[in-house]
Each structure stands twice: as C-alpha cells, then as structure tokens.
Automatic annotation (TrEMBL):
Residues annotated as domain Nucleotidyl transferase: 10-183
Gene3D superfamilies, A to Z: Spore Coat Polysaccharide Biosynthesis Protein SpsA, Chain A
Lineage summary: Bacteria, Pseudomonadati, Bacteroidota, Cytophagia, Cytophagales
GO molecular function per UniProt: nucleotidyltransferase activity
Top-level taxon of the source organism: Bacteria
rRNA-binding is among the record's keywords: no
Record's keyword annotation contains Transferase: yes
Name of the protein in question: Putative sugar nucleotidyltransferase
InterPro entries associated with the record: GlmU-like, NTP_transferase_dom, Nucleotide-diphossugar_trans
Keywords associated with the record: Nucleotidyltransferase, Transferase
Organism: Echinicola vietnamensis (strain DSM 17526 / LMG 23754 / KMM 6221)
C-alpha cells in the first residue's frame, strides 16, 4: 500500500495576550524545551516528513533561532508568515484590526508549502504522544480526498485551574464521525459541575463531552475549500475589525454541506496548555514527570533517541 509522509502545521502566530509573552518560544521542559518541541519530536517518530511554522513576522527570527539547529537535520522545515495583510486584498484591509484573522486564516497562509496530507496543532498546547501517533497513522495511509480527522479530548481533561477557557464542544454520529461543533465560552469547573457562562446564559456541560483542541488532520483539498470561504468571510466582515476566521467554522460548513467527513480519533488522553502565567508551573511539573518516567529521554534532541 502506498503511503505518504504527512506534514505537521504548527500555528505559532498567536499574540499570547493573556500569558503576557511569546509562549511559543518560552521554555518549559527540564532542558528549556518549548511545548511544541515535544509535538515535533513525536511527529518525527510517527513518520511525519515536514514541519511548517506559521508565525508573525516580528518573531520569525526568534523562532528560527529557537528551533532550526535542533531539528533541521531531522525533518524538512518551512516557515510562513501570518500577517494582517496575508491573502487580504487591499480593498479588504482594515486599519483598525490589531489581531490575526484566526486559525483557518493561519492554515490558509501555508497553502503554498504543503501539498501532502497534514496535521494542524497549536504551538502552546501539549497534545500527547498518542494523539500525534494517531494523526500520523491516519494521514500516512490513503484516505478519500475529503476525509479528514480530529483528535477528541474529554472536557474534564482540558480545563484550566487558573481561569476560564473557550472550547469547541463536539457532536458525533454512531460511526464516530463529527457532526458539528459549538464554541462554548468562559468554561470552568464550579464545584462538581462544569459550567459555560455566555452573557446571562449559563450552561452545564458533561465533563466527558468530547471537545476540539485544534488537533486536526486534513487532506490537501481542505485548502481549496477554506479559500472559497475565506473570500466570503472577507466580504461579509470588511467593516468588522475583530471578526476571526476559525477552523471549526470551516469544518462545520463542510460537514453541513456534505463536502467532507471528519473522523474523531481516539488518542486525546493527555493535554495541557498555557493560557495564563500561572499555568507555567503546572506544565513544567508535567513535562519533568514525563522525562523522569522515560516517556521522553533526558535530552529531547539526542540523535540516538530520535528515529526517522
């Protein structure tokens, strides 16, 4: 059976406003490893052949300095820029906009350097070895042109101890395929319950509900479908300086229009991320524990520990 080495697309252009800095390049591991280095390490082991960083122009040199020497000999590396003018015709550029256009726009910025099936992850989230491995297996073997996937995580495992979070709450059919996602805001644990507060609306959500943590696997056809919707988004939001173009919005549209299927993969066992400064200690402790237990070697980038 013919196989293809997939690409790992890392969304690293976020502003980190709640964290207070460039968490994409901040060190958390015992040897000052960034969070995303673990995903890259796991991706190399899972058979990925390329890693693509989507970054802001102002941190491009910092990202290159942080990662290139470590991984350049292990996997193909590409960098692309997400800016306020990337793929935005002059007529739609809004001088009042200050933040990037969102995750689906970030994906679209990489369309010129990715021709193979690809995974998408956030730079500041730890997804776990199992998740990257499942994505690799799905994307490595032939699928239909419009058969995508995502790794689902139980809501109880993806909350923050230091504030509220937003999550894409998933619905699925009996085939284990995604039928839709609803973005729920300001989610936190309140006593024994998990609550979402959106204005005056208060919603209790089962703690075992699967949610999207932006851990996706796409066929290359996703670029063309996203680009069609990007043009519509720009026209509809030309006077809105805060509107964002999200991956779940595109995925929901494709499912509703029967233009794609999205399989929910098992593998969402371990997740932690950095949203607030207080999250750093928790992440450091978790990564140190994994090194101590042998999940990762003492030094992540010892050549003998990484297999191609």
């Amino acid at each position: 059976m013919q196989t293809t080495k997939p690409a790992l697309l890392i969304l690293a252009a976020g502003m980190g406003s709640r964290y207070g800095g460039n968490k994409q390049i901040d060190g958390f591991g015992p040897n000052n490893e960034t969070i995303l280095e673990y995903a890259i390490y796991d991706a190399i082991q899972a058979g990925f052949g390329k890693v693509v960083f989507v970054v802001r122009a102002e941190i491009l040199d910092l990202v290159k300095d942080r990662f290139l020497d470590k991984i350049n000999d292990l996997i193909q590396v590409e960098f692309v820029i997400q800016s306020l003018t990337s793929l935005v015709p002059a007529a739609y550029q809004n001088p009042e906009r200050t933040k990037p256009y969102g995750t689906a726009h970030a994906v679209l910025c990489a369309k010129e350097v990715i021709e193979e099936p690809f995974a998408v992850i956030n730079a500041d989230d730890f997804y776990g070895k199992e998740a990257i491995d499942r994505l690799g297996k799905f994307l490595t073997h032939p699928q239909g042109d419009h058969q995508h996937c995502m790794v689902g995580y139980a809501l109880k495992n993806v909350l923050s101890q230091h504030g509220t979070v937003n999550r894409g709450v998933c619905d699925a059919n009996d085939k284990g395929e995604l039928t839709g996602m609803t973005e729920r805001e300001k989610i936190s644990r309140e006593g024994e319950k998990v609550i979402s507060r959106m204005g005056e609306d208060v919603l209790e959500i089962s703690e075992n509900t699967p949610v999207s943590m932006n851990c996706w696997g796409f066929q290359p056809s996703f670029f063309a479908e996203t680009e069609k919707r990007w043009k519509v988004f720009l026209e509809e939001n030309k006077d809105n300086s805060k509107a964002e173009f999200y991956i779940p919005t595109v995925v929901n549209d494709l499912i509703a229009e029967s233009k794609a299927s999205v399989r929910i993969l098992e593998g969402g066992k371990t997740w932690f991320g950095v949203t607030y400064p207080e999250d750093k200690v928790t992440v450091e402790e978790a990564l140190n524990f994994m090194h101590q237990k042998g999940v990762y070697p003492g030094k992540l980038w010892e050549p003998k520990k990484v297999r191609m």
